[in-house]
Amino acid sequence: MKRIFTFLGLTIFTFISCSENNSGAKKTEDFETDNEYKTETKNVGIVTNDEHTISSSSDIIDPITYTKEFDLYLIRDLEESANKKVGFISLSDIYPLGEHPDSLAIPSLENVDKDSLQYFKLNLTYRKRFLSKTNISESDSVFIYDYSTDVLLSFPVRKLNVVAYLNIYMDINDCPCSQYDFMIGFEIVRKYLKGLGENFSKALVFIGKENPFVTGQMKAIVWQKIKPEKFPLEKSNLTEVQKQNNDENKQAYLCETDNYQIFIQDYIEPDNPIQVQDRHLIVIEKQRGNVVNETMFSNSEGTSATPLNYGINNSNFHDLKEQWTGKLFKDKPEVIFGFEWVSFGCPIINYLNSQDKCIQINCDNRH
């Protein structure tokens, strides 16, 4: 089946009964490497006009243009890959690099000991260049929110080192390397990253004047297995031919709230009962009975369907929580995400009330 990636007639909705009760104590902390501080919260500067287009491989679906409302980043644990007890936030996705000497992001490395090339701190000249080119101020803060542990941390930019990290696909024996071979961003000592989940895999980063995150409102979805005939395929916007391509090897799941029904139908490989080929998401508003969200996910070279939460479709992942929903950002609609893993490109967080808006996370994917 051809991959279809579309969002149809989205509207705001809130998940209640189908989500786990995340009743643990919320924790918000400000950290400074030398002493305690309070972050500045004067202005909100998170809106940009950047746009990107995702083209569907379906012959009947037009390309959809998404508006990127603000920049989010991921934080990497470098203890295993670089033997550094730090969290590293790469901003190379937004750092414009050029060949002209004035635009160089790192100093010349020709006479530098190779053992120092994998990871090093940038001096004041290159720090200022980095901040200027990325439009980040020393008075900004780095906000890190882990939605799985409901922990929010913040750090002043002025206290953080700017470092260069040689990407994992380059070998220091091949250096001197170009500036394009390095990830460039902020370093945070691991001991200050208390409360974040394992490998920081569920943590999101924003850099600016004011924290954009809402705490205590993200939930991991709990699925109930249903008979495939209960999946509302008759309400789908797929063509009849596309529907007929998925007649066999189906598994269906439901998450129901006071106002919405959230359906998933997975199409399984014939010889592998835990391998999902395609995934069909339909959300129905109970009051009107109309579809407010329909999305098709398909395995490809760069994407694969995630196991559903708590091992309901794969007992090897009984503790896994990938599908999340709720209110993640201040003054923004609810979001939903976690239906596929991305190996090429970066993951996307989708709003539930808009056809043309989403947030594509900057992940500096060098795959």
Label this structure with key terms.
3 helices; 2 domains; 5% helix; 23 strands; 367 residues
The strand order across the widest sheet is 2-3-23-22-20-19-12
Low-confidence stretches: 1-17, 21-25, 32-66
Domain module tally:
2
Beta content: 25-35%
How much is the average pLDDT?
79
Major sheet details: 7 strands, mixed
Structural class of the secondary structure composition? mainly beta
End-to-end separation = 26 Å
Helical fraction = under 10%
- Annotation, overall tally of beta strands: 23
Topology at a glance:
Layout: E1 27-30, E2 51-54, E3 64-68, E4 76-77, H1 79-82, E5 86-90, E6 119-121, H2 124-134, E7 141-146, E8 151-156, E9 161-166, E10 182-189, E11 203-208, E12 218-220, E13 224-226, H3 240-244, E14 250-256, E15 260-269, E16 272-285, E17 291-298, E18 303-305, E19 324-326, E20 335-337, E21 340-342, E22 348-351, E23 357-360
Parallel strand pairs: 1-8, 3-23
Antiparallel strand pairs: 2-3, 4-5, 5-10, 6-9, 7-8, 7-11, 9-10, 12-19, 13-14, 14-15, 15-16, 16-17, 18-21, 19-20, 20-22, 22-23
Commentary on this structure:
With 367 residues, the chain is mainly β. The chain has two domains: 27-211, no CATH class; 219-360, no CATH class. 5% of the residues lie in helices and 33% in strands. The protein has three helices and 23 strands. The protein has helices at 79-82, 124-134, 240-244, and strands at 27-30, 51-54, 64-68, 76-77, 86-90, 119-121, 141-146, 151-156, 161-166, 182-189, 203-208, 218-220, 224-226, 250-256, 260-269, 272-285, 291-298, 303-305, 324-326, 335-337, 340-342, 348-351, 357-360. The protein has a seven-stranded mixed beta sheet with strand order 2-3-23-22-20-19-12, with no helix packed on it. It has a five-stranded antiparallel beta sheet with strand order 4-5-10-9-6. Strands 13-14-15-16-17 form a five-stranded antiparallel beta sheet, with no helix packed on it. A hairpin with a 4-residue loop joins strand 7 (141-146) and strand 8. The longest helix is centred in the middle third of the chain and has 11 residues, at 124-134. The two termini are 26 Å apart.
